[in-house]
Amino acid sequence: MNAAELQLLARPQVRDLASYNAGLGTEAVRKRFGLTRVAKLGSNENPLGPAPAVAAAMALACSSIALYPDASCLELRAALSAKLHVPGNQLVFGNGSEDLLSIISRVFLDHGDEVVTVVPSFGLHFIYPIAAGARVTGVPMTDEGRFDVPAMIQALTPKTRLLMFSCPPTRSVAPSTPTSCNACWRRCRPSACWCSTKPITNTRNSKRVIPIALD
Predict the structure, then answer these.
(1) CA–CA separation, 136 vs 163, rounded Å?
(2) Between 188 and which of 107, 119, 120, 192 could a Cys-Cys bridge form, CB atoms 3.0 to 4.6 Å apart?
(3) In what order do the strands lie in the sheet with 193-196?
(4) Is pLDDT at 112 greater than 50 in this prediction?
(5) In this predicted model, what pLDDT tens digit does every residue of 125-154 receive, in sequence order?
(6) Domain ranges in the chain?
(7) What is the tens place of the pLDDT at every residue in 11-50?
(8) Do 142 and 189 contact (CB within 8 A), yes or no?
(9) What's the rounded Cα separation, in Å, for the pair 157 and 188?
(10) Which class does domain 74-213 fall in?
(11) pLDDT exceeding 70 applies to what percent of the chain?
């Protein structure tokens, strides 16, 4: 079986997806442009490296690296639950925001559902929902680099299932206000989910929407 025949076996939603562009790695950038130091701020990489305490914890963890980790993350769950004052059963852990976005798309989206996100956006805000059979509407930001909340509200339909309000590659965008968050919140359909890559604060609690925050 050749590559073309194998591709035909994939679901149409996956077969027609554009490849995710993760950008060049640090070493590739260094070689291409003849640089000695590279800080990939667009990838949220810290050019200073991990904090000493983190490096020490990682070195200590290497002694058990051959063992399966605790899939329930019991210690981390308990620590974050106490720090954030959130019930432990409301916390979900994954291998970075990419993994969590994949989980959210697989759990909450189905064929015919719709997703609203911003443009420019994290490529996986489109790829994961489309792979799940959903339709994604991208709302451009304003010329001032702010979320166009009225346009986002207008993009909401009875089929909107997921609203992704922010994205990692656009950390420079101006923050949304509690008022603008509430405006979108009130317009979401009763079974809609709310997804953000930054915690949303000062929004009215509601049984109409499931808030999901990634950070």
Answers:
(1) 10
(2) 192
(3) 135-140, 114-119, 160-164, 193-196, 210-213
(4) yes
(5) 899 999 999 999 999 988 887 788 889 888
(6) 1-67, 74-213
(7) 887 887 877 777 788 888 889 999 888 887 777 778 888 8
(8) no
(9) 8
(10) alpha beta
(11) 76
